[in-house]
Acetate kinase (Serpentinimonas raichei), 408 residues
Amino acid sequence: MPLLLTLNAGSSSIKFSLTPLPGAKGTPLPAPLAHGQVSGIGGAAARLSLRSSLHGKQEQALPTVASGRSGHEQALDAVLHWLEQHLPEEKVALVSHRVVHGGVHFAQPMRLDAQVLAQLDALAPLAPLHQPHNLAGIRSAMAAFGQALQVACFDTAFHRQHPFVADTFALPRRFYDEGVRRYGFHGLSYEYIARTLQAHWPALHQGRVIVAHLGNGASMCALRQGVSIDSSMGFTALDGLPMGTRCGQIDPGVLLYLLTEKGYSPEQLTELLYQQSGLKGLSGLSNDVRELLQSEQPQAGQALDYFVARCQREIGALSASLGGLDALVFTGGIGENAVPIRQRILQDLGWIGIDFDPAANATHGSSHAGAQPQGQISQPGSRVSVLVLPTDEERMLAEHALALWQAV
Ligand code: ADP
């Protein structure tokens, strides 16, 4: 049976899933046979952890996995080795890669060849902390699965229909023309949520919806009739909401001050804004919302206050972009699970038409026993509906690749 492999290559991890390819055209994708990740790439304690429908949950320590391209090759080798041992009859025939940046032109998933790969290389400066890892994952997979069809799916693609005013900065026009634009990210997640709305809440799908993808990386997206018209993220995945370790929206004057008065180098500034800021920087404790919720340190409380306030502010801003609001959807690790954070965001939003249901909120999440993973957390008569919906970026990767595979 041929297999479809999805790969989501980050700086220190590769998430993957393995799904049997359906034979006949139009047959829906079955559930994955296995999914998991190699974590700790570039560190001392690399691990392969996975869950397989045939073999249950497995964890395995790996010999030191280097960073960079060779690290991704070693990580893929570990997955390959597991496949050979546990599913010796199966062959990977289709590989779908998550790629952060598709630039101005890639608005659809693409079949990967040398020409597309060269174009993606040229986009690496636009996403220096993500794109090189994605490309290392692609090159490793091309070497490992030479016969397979390889597909790239872009986080920016879902936002390429933004109107000019949501796509630009007020810089001299030449910068827009050369690609300095507000791209927006988390597109595979938003696409999955838009599809879920279409399938299960078709009336809301037709309306004005804000999706809050709140995870270690966090952003919001404004959907009108399922189409993205605005996003909190901009040129890079730094803008908008504060995140685990990223600053979110910041006055560019602060950056000029750090460069000119404090002597920061571009590398130090990059490290500060991507790795040392956000919840971690403000709290001085952790980027993890669970730890901050448990902490009694005032700085932990202030970091969460800031996160909640910026989420509320972004909901106001995107409602203005949409000309009103019919539904708000929470997704991502925090959005799906952090009951107190949802409560704090929602309890002050009566003015926007949200009649919040604290009891329903308390019973929704995927990380506590007996909770509902998805459903409504606003009162039945609320003018704006509020939903919790788990996202599934791997599923979108798989479906996009299958569509290209079947079109060949
Ligand atoms: P990523 O952007 O890396 O994909 P996730 O969407 O997995 O991140 O979200 C990770 C974050 O979700 C964690 O850092 C943690 O703060 C938060 N989270 C996960 N489960 C819970 C929970 N039960 N309560 C509060 N926060 C949670």
Remarks:
- The CA atoms of residues 10 and 388 lie 26 Å apart.
- The chain has 16 helices and 14 strands.
- The longest helix spans residues 298-322.
- The two ends are 18 Å apart (CA to CA).
